[in-house]
Design goal:
This protein has 106 residues and is an all-alpha fold. It contains four helices and no strands. The longest helix has 30 residues, at 42-71.
Length: 106
């Protein structure tokens, strides 16, 4: 659980309700990402994709956010633009991904 989830649970919100958005996101995402790779590369490809993505977007975000806050003189609009940029990159990657419906998974 992340800090925001722990905060909600500490305020009496049911933990199952707090987890609902993450379950709705990560269930289909895991299936979609694994279908992007051939069977012999599926485990490696999905794992590397998740790990490199987490390291680049999640691991560097605090450093980038701190630099952006300093650059913008303490204003948070620069972080909003950074998150919009990451969302645009994600959308472009999702649109560029090949359609796998009707193709054999092996």
């Amino acid at each position: 659980m992340g800090m925001e989830q722990l905060f909600l649970v500490s305020r009496g919100v049911d933990a199952r309700e707090v987890q609902r958005p993450w379950r709705a996101l990560f269930g289909p995402e895991a299936t979609w990402v694994s279908e992007l790779f051939a069977a012999r590369l599926r485990y490696r490809g999905a794992s590397l994709g998740f790990q490199i993505g987490a390291a680049l977007s999640g691991g560097l975000t605090p450093l980038v956010a701190e630099a952006l806050i300093g650059w913008s003189g303490g204003a948070t609009w620069s972080i909003s633009l950074y998150l919009i940029l990451l969302a645009a990159i994600t959308l472009a990657a999702a649109v560029a991904a090949p359609e796998t419906a009707g193709k054999p998974l092996s």
